Amino acid sequence: MKRTFLHSLPIALTTALLIGAGSHAMAQQQEGNFGAQPPAGMEQQGATVDPHTLDRFVDAFVAVQHIRDDFARKLEDVSDEAEAQALQQEAQEEMITAVQDEGMSVEEYNQVAMSLQSDPAMLQQVQEMAAERM
Questions:
Q1: Distance between CA 94 and CA 98 in Å, rounded?
Q2: Residues ≥6 apart with Cβ < 8 Å to 69
């Protein structure tokens, strides 16, 4: 499981980013500030993420992965498109809640995920931390 997980982390991060972006309207209703632009500096390559934030990110990421895996299994048994969409909506809501339960906004979570794309050392660190927590 760990080996598969480590190879799928970049794909999973992309999925997490898409979920955050795809739920933009719903998130704005829940937390008025999710649609805000990232703070200056977070868009730049190599943005620094403090260890506490990285730790919360990893916990949130692991929770999001468990939710995604659970709903992927549920979707395998669904043939009705409306039911599949309802399940996807439910999964997105649970993922948002999981991120918030770790003390992060969806915006902050996505910013850290974007930072990982330009920082291979931090990505490696997140992979190792997440593998230990899976």
A1: 6
A2: none
Helix, strand, or coil here: 37? coil
Q: Write out the two tokens for 122.
A: 């931090």
- Tell me which amino acid residue 39 is: P
* Eight-class DSSP state of 42: S
Q: What is the pTM of this model?
A: 0.68
Q: Which two tokens stand for residue 92?
A: 């997105």
DSSP string, 42-80: SSSTT----HHHHHHHHHHHHHHHHHHHHHHHHHHT---
pLDDT digits (tens, 9 = 90+) for 58-78: 999 999 999 988 998 888 888
* H-run or E-run covering 16: helix 2-22
